[in-house]
Amino acid sequence: MTANNTHIAHISDLHFGAASEQAVNALVNDLEAQQPDIIVITGDLTQAGRRREFEAARDFLNALSANKVIVPGNHDLPVINLWSRFITPYNRFERYMSGMINPIFNDAGVTIVGLNTARRAALDLNWSYGRLSRSQILRATENLENAPKGNVKIIAAHHPFVLGPGRAGSRTVGRGAEAMSAFAANGLDIALTGHVHHSSAELFEVNAKKIVMVQAGTATSIRTRQEPPAYNHIKASIANITVETRVFHENGFIADNEKAFKNTDCGGWVSG
């Protein structure tokens, strides 16, 4: 951390198994150059939840020296083996990612609450949509409430809480509005999400408080949905947040856009 800022690399939708090798190599190099304090990955590390895809994701993570907070995406559940999908849906993720599916990270300056929104099945023909349980919302709310005083409070989940562009952004996570209301009441500052392969950083008002909603594009997938691979570099303190989108161009990632936000205490965050 520098000047009371925590540096966070927000990465999503790597899709190993359908990833650009050039983008993967460039991402490793850029992350080592940027030297974030924490790397937050909001799901879809793999394309179909296969062992070899998780092995590639593990090798990628092992090449990075920063602390890591990782949550699953819908593609990280077995796609082909339905027995594994229904009986042990998160087994490979937990084994290869060396962590929990709802991780908690506390360090000087930030509290990050990870939420698993991926589900083995749904009452819908499209199982890619995400959902939260009420017990998840309760636990996350308690973790936000009990965060050390002065910490920036962050949630990380794969599926978006607000609508985004394109077909993949046409539906928000189940119980998302209920969750955001509870999180806002307990001091949430930033929400990090993925899934839609589109980068953005916008303010979202919940119960008269404005929260910084940060969406990551796909970092390395060949499925770019009309946007090149990208990730976010965030500098966060209790007073200021900046979100820089770094976009893959030729052989490396370069800064493309930056947004700044200031804390107003009672009303949450504002642009600037």
Automatic annotation (TrEMBL):
Keywords: Hydrolase, Iron, Metal-binding. It comes from the Bacteria. It holds the Pfam family Metallophos. Residues 7-198 form the Calcineurin-like phosphoesterase domain. Belongs to the cyclic nucleotide phosphodiesterase class-III family. This is Metallophosphoesterase. It comes from Hyphococcus lacteus. The lineage of its organism: Bacteria, Pseudomonadati, Pseudomonadota, Alphaproteobacteria, Parvularculales.
